[in-house]
Every structure is written in structure tokens, then in C-alpha cells.
Amino acid sequence: MISSIVSCRVLQRWADHVLHVEHNIWRALILYVAAGALQEALAALRETQQPYTAAMFVLACREIYTEITTNLENSDDESGSSSSNMSVNLPGLNPENQDVIAVGEYFGQYQRTLVHLCMDSQPYYD
Questions:
Q1: Whole-structure pTM value
Q2: 3-state class of 36 per DSSP?
Q3: Which residues contact 8 (CB under 8 A, 6 or more apart)?
Q4: 3-state helix, strand, coil in the chain (%, to 5)
Q5: 1, 8, 20, 35: least surrounded by Cβ within 10 Å?
């Protein structure tokens, strides 16, 4: 267990280096996610002013987490054990976190703007 904690810290420090020294956001995101540092990945996206990508990142993480927990619940149901104590929130991307709230609000505003743009524009035909 200690070696996995050390590995996560090493990956996170490497991600910090890649982000701030090499300025490679995509490679840094891969390293943050591999380290389990989802909050840091979200912060990196916000820091590099990529709100749409940040919103998609949160949505993708939640979708994957939901799928994993559903699969675990189904396998627990088949084995007869109870999974009622399973966590509802994705660790690192708690809905009460200020970064997550800000990303959600921005994405909601983006969706409303997109709906208005689509409703106000003429249809495009080939």
C-alpha cells in the first residue's frame, strides 16, 4: 500500500512538471488521472482556461464512475452481498467542491447559449 501511495505521489509530481515546465496539458492530464488526482486534473484544465474540456472531463468521470459502481452493485447482487454503503460521490470530484460547482455552472450556461443559438438560427440544408 505504501508503494502505491508513493507511486501516486511520483505520478502527481511528474504531472505537475509536465504541466508547468513542458506546458503539455494532455500528457499532464493522463498522469493526474493515473495518479488518481482528479481534482488536480480539473484544476489544471481550469488553470489553462479550458472550461469546455473541464466540463466534459467531469461528465466523463461521473459517467465512468457510475458504470463501475453499477457493475459492482450487479456483481454484489449476484453474489448475495449488500452494497448499500457504496459511495454516491466520485472521490476527488465532490459536487460540493467549488471547482466542480464552477465548471457545472459554466457548462450549464454554455448549454443554454447553445440552445438559444440553435433555436434562433435558420436550418442548414445541403
A1: 0.65
A2: coil
A3: 35, 36, 37
A4: 75, 0, 25
A5: 1
Residue written as grid cell 481550469: 46
CA-based angle 18:23:24, to the nearest 5?
70
- 95 grid coordinates: 459536487
**For residue 80, is pLDDT > 70?**
no
Query: How far is the first Cα of the chain from the last one, in angstroms, to the nearest whole number?
Result: 59
Span 6-55, pLDDT tens digits: 788 999 999 999 999 999 999 999 999 999 888 899 989 988 888 888 88
Residue type for position 24: N
The 3-state secondary structure of 50-71 reads CHHHHHHHHHHHHHHHHHHHHH
